[in-house]
Amino acid sequence: MPIKIAPSILSADFTKLGEEVKRVEAGGAEILHIDVMDGHFVPNMTIGPPVIKALRKVSSMKFDVHLMIERPELYLEEFVNAGADIITVHAEASIHLHRLIQQIKSMGVKAGLALNPATPIEVLTYVLQDLDMVLLMSVNPGFGGQQFIQGVLPKIVALSTIIAQVNPGCLIEVDGGINTDTISLVSRAGADIIVAGAAVFTKPDPVLAIKELLAAAE
Ligand code: DX5
Ligand code: ZN
């Protein structure tokens, strides 16, 4: 399967968010990465269900909602009702991961699990078979525009080997620090979906920026 770029709206111009989203969709993007931060799990705050609900009215892209929040179980229903297609929670944010993943799936959306750069993939051992996606963070979550952490590359390689054996339908998403220099490293390591924020939305032409990223990935 060819890799897909999921543009992250974190670096978009929030004064014209609807237009920014429509623009990348018209340019061929199929997945929109939406970063939700609560100021507790990560030292930054972004947006929540009302903004996702508003975007849902102007876009039919798959909404890939990355929850960087504590107590995610309290808000799942709101995010589903707002229009999420994939909900990704952080392994570090729950002591009841199995239950949390089942809760997401029971709501009829796809379930993703995100791992911070320092979190070993062993945490996936008993839940990988239930997941639709694993998100490997290649920066410490909280901010756009950070530098790619090279140390995550062997983690992507190791995870893709395990996924091929345990749950071949499960996708690997990599998030943070992706640009035309780093994208080939993660695509070669085994990423299926690659998130790009600053490398798309700080560029004068985000659609062209996505095409350049795809070209650099090959
Ligand atoms: C970081 C977020 C990312 C962020 C990536 O905490 O999870 O999705 O938007 O931004 P870039 O691509 O600029 O590193
Ligand atoms: Zn993200």
TrEMBL record:
Q: Which reaction does it catalyse?
A: D-ribulose 5-phosphate = D-xylulose 5-phosphate
| Binding-site residues for substrate, renumbered to this chain | S8, H66, G142, F143, G144, G145, D175, G176, G177
- Quote the record's binding site residues for a divalent metal cation: H33, D35, H66, D175
**Recorded GO CC terms:** cytoplasm
Q: Which SUPFAM superfamilies match?
A: Ribulose-phoshate binding barrel
Q: Which domain of life is it from?
A: Bacteria
Give the annotated active site. D35 (proton acceptor), D175 (proton donor)
Keyword Isomerase part of the UniProt annotation: yes
Give the keywords, sorted: Carbohydrate metabolism, Cobalt, Isomerase, Manganese, Metal-binding, Zinc
One Pfam family, short name please? Ribul_P_3_epim
Name a single GO biological process: pentose catabolic process
List the pathway annotation. Answer: Carbohydrate degradation
Q: Which InterPro entries match?
A: Aldolase_TIM (IPR013785), Ribul_P_3_epim (IPR026019), Ribul_P_3_epim-like (IPR000056), RibuloseP-bd_barrel (IPR011060)
Q: How is the cofactor bound?
A: Binds 1 divalent metal cation per subunit.
What are the protein's GO molecular function terms? D-ribulose-phosphate 3-epimerase activity; metal ion binding
Name what cofactor the protein needs: a divalent metal cation; Mn(2+); Fe(2+); Co(2+)
According to its UniProt record, the EC number is 5.1.3.1
Summarize the protein's role. Answer: Catalyzes the reversible epimerization of D-ribulose 5-phosphate to D-xylulose 5-phosphate.
Q: Into which family does the record put it?
A: Belongs to the ribulose-phosphate 3-epimerase family.
Checking HAMAP family in the record gives: RPE (MF_02227)
This chain belongs to which protein, by name?
A: Ribulose-phosphate 3-epimerase
Could you tell me which species this protein originates from? Answer: Syntrophobotulus glycolicus (strain DSM 8271 / FlGlyR)
